[in-house]
Amino acid sequence: MNASSVVALDVDGVLGDFETHWRECAEEVLCRSMPKVNEQHSMGLRYGLSNKEMDAVWRVFHEDRWADLPLYDHASELVLALEDLGCMVWAVTSIDVQHRAARAESLAGLIPAGRIVCVGHAAPASAKTDVLRDLGAVAFLDDHPANANAALGLVSLPVLLDRGYHGLEAPEYGVTVIDDVMDFPVLVEQLLRRTGRAA
Questions:
Q1: What is the pTM of this model?
Q2: Fold designation for 3-17+70-194
Q3: Which of 4, 46, 49, 68 has the CA that lies 20 to 30 A from 167?
Q4: Mapped to the 3 state alphabet, what secondary structure does the chain carry?
């Protein structure tokens, strides 16, 4: 399979239900229920936590919670739909490389371990674009506008999954915005047909 069929997906918020998993961890660590106070992208702001509370939750989360991050119901359907189009699907994820094995475990073979790239927890958007360039990806799906914006001009189809987060930059002209993740394979199919790469 050639590089022209490579499609890259973010994981947290796209394939895996990071927010629910993180909130449940926070409730265990802080011994209280965790009502959402707003739709800010930052988990601390979203749940009204202090820096000390955030540090405590992240410490536990990084120790042993990445491996059992639950997948969304649509995760398998999304990846299989892309593979049916002849695409090779890669995960390009903003977690530290030491959690790569845990990430592979949470994906449960949906994306092979050899196709999971971890760019780092606090990596700039350019870290993902470097990977996209190396892979020769034609399409990229992320739920963070900065990452989708950075992919403009590098991949033919940069797509933002709009989760309604506040406090982030706006998607730039040229980024396709969707609110249903299963619209992504439809867009990829249209791209492949338009460029003569359809399977």
A1: 0.94
A2: Rossmann fold (3.40.50)
A3: 68
A4: CCHHHEEEECCECCCECHHHHHHHHHHHHHCCCCCCCCCECCHHHHCCCCHHHHHHHHHHHHHHCCCCCCECCCHHHHHHHHHHCCCEEEEEECCCHHHHHHHHHHHCCCCCHHHEEECCCCCCHHHHHHHHHHHCCCEEEECCHHHHHHCECCECEEEEECCCCECCCCCCCCCEEECCCCHHHHHHHHHHHHCCCCC
